[in-house]
Specification:
This protein is α/β, with parallel strands linked by helices. The protein folds into 3 domains: about 160 residues, Adenylosuccinate Synthetase, Chain A, domain 1; about 90 residues, Orthogonal Bundle (Adenylosuccinate Synthetase, subunit A, domain 2), CATH 1.10.300.10; about 160 residues, Adenylosuccinate Synthetase, Chain A, domain 3, CATH 3.90.170. Helix content is about 35%, strand content about 20%. The strands form 5 sheets. The chain has a 10-stranded mixed β-sheet, sandwiched between helices. Strands 14, 16, 17 and 18 form a 4-stranded mixed β-sheet that branches. The N and C termini lie close together (about 10 Å). The model has no long low-confidence stretch (mean pLDDT about 95). The chain binds guanosine-5'-diphosphate, 6-O-phosphoryl inosine monophosphate (IMO) and magnesium ion. The site of 6-O-phosphoryl inosine monophosphate (IMO) has 24 residues, from helix 4.
């Protein structure tokens, strides 16, 4: 049985939530393998908007088993809130499970995230302040608290005590802030532990059994390629392996289990937070128009997203690292009514024309664009590729030719059904 991986190919918010929901209909399992509640994945069904931060976007279908996998970092406070919000919207959460091996984000992680950002001043990353980086730091330092520690209050007490003693030294002596209270946090988290204890499973065996039993499995990436800790625009990245390589590490399966690598890119680019963004449209009417039409405001932090033109050098790099065999383009509808639409095809870098994505992007990188004439028509109601305006098809065709990849699906609106299936036979193959 083929397994599908969905990953973002830019700087996040490409529409992974919408596409995961679409593919979930025909999945038995949807698994998150990295990141934490720095993510915000939106699903729009008729008049309902669901925003998921930790729970996999398969949850809308009651028959889908949703696993928050071993490579994820979990803030129980926010997870519980998310479960309660879904219940209020009549969504069945009984099939949401949590890996024993996942690490727990504690209040001190959130504080340390914020204090480090303040300390960095003009070099700050623009994190979500959700404590994701500090949680992964503790994991690597081998002092992290895993979900399995929740099952053992004695162990949890001991680990938490050690961590709070250590963190209080950093908080008070380095950052000169107020110490946090062990007793308050311990009492609060013991209650959270009770709330989620029924959902804790040994996800590694569960996932392997699912493969053995030929279940349809979908891995849902969070963040995106250019925010990947190893291959993104370091240091302006998140702290996990967001690329397809992270699936094996974050869910305990061998690479040979994976079949379809589905990459999602917007028809333009956006970025929240700081860091290089070669095609950014700065202080310009067009950039503001894209932000407004695309509703480009952070799902998690509500910050306005920086907007820019499609960068095909970056996208080709992402497809290469991720081994993408199916491409999905989202938000093409947002580009309607622009007179000219630009695509970056080369960079000028230190006086040289280059066509690769540099390991470090300096501020003065210059983009070389091809201009495409826009189209007037609203395309958000279109369901067949042939019905798209001529100039719109030219834009899409150029992307395919440059990347040497066929586009599987084009999303033309946030609603679940606003899709153009471009490559019907491949779609049926993946979707059956
Ligand atoms: P994710 O983090 O990749 O899941 O993406 P987000 O949910 O954070 O951001 C994508 C936003 O675009 C959400 O508000 C979606 O509802 C919306 N969206 C997704 N696809 C489309 C599309 O094709 N057109 C438009 N206009 N909006 C879309
Ligand atoms: P989804 O899954 C967009 C960005 C932050 C910041 C950087 C580091 O919704 O696509 P962090 O809090 O992770 O240490 O912040 O990464 N970032 C995202 N940007 N979408 C996301 O997730 C993001 N998750 C983190 O804005 O620039
Ligand atoms: Mg998002």
């Amino acid at each position: 049985m083929p397994s599908n991986v969905i990953v973002g190919l830019q700087w996040g918010d490409e529409g992974k939530g919408k596409i995961t929901d679409l593919f979930s209909k025909n999945s038995d399992y949807v698994i998150r393998y990295q990141g934490g509640n720095n993510s915000g994945h939106s699903i729009h069904i008729k008049n309902n908007y669901f925003i998921l931060h930790l729970i996999p976007s398969g949850v809308i279908y009651p028959y889908v088993k949703c696993i928050i996998g071993p490579g994820v970092v979990i803030d129980p406070k926010y997870l519980i809130q998310e479960i309660k919000n879904l219940k209020l919207m009549d969504i069945n959460t009984s099939k949401v499970f949590i890996s024993k091996r996942a690490h727990i984000t504690m209040p001190y992680h959130r504080l340390l995230d914020q204090y480090q950002e303040e300390f960095l001043e003009d070099q700050s990353i623009g994190t979500t302040h959700r404590g994701i980086g500090p949680t992964y730091e503790d994991k690597i330092a081998r002092i992290g608290i895993q979900v399995l520690d929740f099952l053992n209050p004695k162990n949890f007490y001991k680990k938490l005590k050690f961590n709070i003693d250590l963190k209080n030294k950093i908080i008070t002596k380095i950052y000169k802030k107020t110490a946090i209270s062990f007793d308050t946090i311990y009492q609060e988290y013991i209650e959270y532990a009770k709330y989620i204890s029924d959902r804790i499973i040994d996800a590694v065996y569960d996932i392997h059994n699912a493969f053995k039993n030929k279940k349809k499995i979908l891995f849902e990436g969070a963040q995106a390629m250019l925010l990947d800790i190893n291959y993104g625009t370091y240091p302006y990245v998140s702290t996990s392996s967001a690329s397809t390589g992270g699936v094996c590490v974050g869910s305990g399966i061998p690479p040979s289990f994976l079949t379809n690598f589905i990459g999602i890119a917007k028809a333009y680019c956006t970025r929240v937070g700081y860091g290089p963004f070669p095609t950014e449209i700065v202080e310009n009417e067009v950039g503001n128009l894209i932000r407004k039409k695309g509703n480009e405001y952070g799902t998690t932090t509500k910050r306005p997203r920086r907007c820019g033109w499609l960068d095909l050098i970056a996208l080709k790099y992402s497809c290469m690292i991720n081994g993408i065999n199916y491409l999905i383009i989202t938000k093409l509808d947002v580009l309607s009514q622009l007179k000219i639409i630009k695509i970056c095809v080369k960079y000028r870098f230190y006086g040289k024309i280059i066509q690769y994505f540099p390991a470090k992007i300096e501020k003065d990188i210059e983009c070389i664009y091809i201009d495409f004439p826009g189209w007037e028509e609203d395309i958000s109601h279109i369901c067949e590729y042939e019905d798209l305006p001529k100039n719109c098809k030219k834009y899409v065709k150029f992307i395919e030719e440059y990347l040497k990849l066929k586009i599987l699906l084009i999303s033309v609106g946030s609603e679940r059904n606003q899709n153009i299936i471009k490559n019907k036979s491949s779609f049926l193959k993946i979707f059956s």
